[in-house]
Recover the amino acids of this structure.
């Protein structure tokens, strides 16, 4: 096998690892919802897509870079998600996993169709210089956006870990996950914890 082929394989492996690190951030949100609320949030992907379109909107109309606007976009998507929890998920608390899961499945279908009607199914790319630039790591070339996404994901996962392990809310989160009834007896507002977790 030629050196060129090895470089292509190594570049593909490096790109896959970097992209996987970014996807782990998405998986973290799903796993926290499942671990704390026993909820399989089937609309998680659609809410992420809402965030992606919002980033595109902020870039095109206000010139806000998607990376710099990450916290703003996250806060806005959380505000969008909160009514779903309050109106659809909270009333189903304690009624098993099936009802909330099917409810979020319905929300997922509705959001998919609303997004299709609003933005069509055309592929869009972020018009930022780093979105399409390659990055040379020795003889290996990877997309720069993959490395940026990986670094951002590592930082955010570390921040989530610190919140869960070192803060009062983290203790409430762990207590609500272990035994919601006992946590409520001890004064933890389990519904508030679930709402923040869902958002």
């Amino acid at each position: 096998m030629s050196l060129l082929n090895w470089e292509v394989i190594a570049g593909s492996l490096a790109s896959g690892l970097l992209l996987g690190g970014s996807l782990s951030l998405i998986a973290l949100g799903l796993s926290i919802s499942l671990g704390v609320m026993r909820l399989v949030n089937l609309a998680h992907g659609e809410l992420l897509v809402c965030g992606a379109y919002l980033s595109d909107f902020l870039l095109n109309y206000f010139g806000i870079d998607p990376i710099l606007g990450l916290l703003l976009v996250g806060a806005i998507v959380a505000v969008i998600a909160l009514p779903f929890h309050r109106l659809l998920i909270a009333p189903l608390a304690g009624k098993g996993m099936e009802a909330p899961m099917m409810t979020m499945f319905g929300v997922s279908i509705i959001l998919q169709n609303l997004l299709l009607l609003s933005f069509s199914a055309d592929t869009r790319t972020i018009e930022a210089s780093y979105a399409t630039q390659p990055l040379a790591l020795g003889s290996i070339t990877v997309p720069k956006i993959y490395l940026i996404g990986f670094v951002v994901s590592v930082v955010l996962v570390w921040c989530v870990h610190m919140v869960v392990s070192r803060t009062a809310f983290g203790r409430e989160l762990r207590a609500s996950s272990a035994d919601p009834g006992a946590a409520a007896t001890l004064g933890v507002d389990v519904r508030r914890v679930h709402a923040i977790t869902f958002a």
